[in-house]
Amino acid sequence: MDLIGSSIIGTIVGLIVAIALRRQKKKDTPNGDKEKTLELEKSISSNEEIIKNLQSEKNILNAKMESFEKLKTENTTLKEKLSNTENERNSLKTKNTTWEKEEEGRIKEFKKAIDSTNTLQESLEKEKERLNDERVKEKEVHFDNMKKQWREHEKDVENHLQMICKNNVITYISQEEFPHARNKPDNSIEIMDQLIVFDAKSPANDNLSNFSNYIKTQTENLKKYAKHDNVKKDLFLVIPSSTLHVINQFTYNMSDYNVYVITLDALEPIVLSLKKIEEYEFADKLSPDDRENICRVIGKFAHSTKRRIQIDQFFANEFLDTLHKAKQLPKDILENVIQFENSEKLNPPMEKRNKPILTKDLRDQTEKIKKELEIRDIPGIEAKITFKEKDERTEE
After folding, report:
1. Contact at 8 Å (CB) between 183 and 228?
2. Which is more confident, 393 or 142?
């Protein structure tokens, strides 16, 4: 633009100079040279044409300049937009980089959490397997102990019966000493020249579903002992205490003889009750009152034994039901309960050989408990006999 302006100015100055010279020429040469005048006029005409052309070019250049200014303004606007776009792009790029880093951190934390969860899951699975193995092992140990007790049951009955006979001066008859050939019971005792049979019976395996039927079958087989004249017609089958819950019947009237199903714990009171008969020289000399008293004592022992078995079975079912309901406790509480359970230990009184359990000691202990209840102001529980229990006693 400066170059064009200088050119125009130069042209205008040239024209002015030319016009001035022309005027001067007229003054100096009034009559002047026509040729020079013509030349000057041609020159002026040419210069005027040039001026017109330059003016036209100037207008064109001005128009172009206006267009250029618009383009320049648009360029500036575009540059600003471009700058803003670049700034926005840089900002987005920075945010994207930040988000990528944060995402990488989250992915790492997520992987760590997954690894931790997998480790915890594996630990829980192992602990579950360990607990299951322990429970299975405990169950196996329990059944092994039960089987061991059942295998040793005959020997335990023999030893216990021998000890009772020794302490109470009663004749014990072993299987080998039984006077009748072929059919010989496990144990028997002799009172008033009569042999009283105590045959030990236990399950063959840990499946107790058929044990009750087995006992019923054995009551029929006892006929081989009862047929002898010197064998008392009241015979006893001694079973393990752990099998009581599957026994449905404890007394069998077989027309020619009676069979009673008892446990090892009932041996001593029953033997002592039978020994009471030995105080009389002959059974036919017993008075009706004495006979009734003996029957009452034996009946009382029989009922007490069955009632105790019934109560133990009832509470065993209640305890099992309570233990089953305990599984519904919240997990954290149940875990604490199991920990306390594992830390507890019950130590019932140990039974020692040749150390009798005195009735006086049992009564003293009962009185002590009653006094403790009175001191602590704990109300007693009155037993109420239901019609069902009366019917059961009537049947017994």
Report:
1. no
2. 142
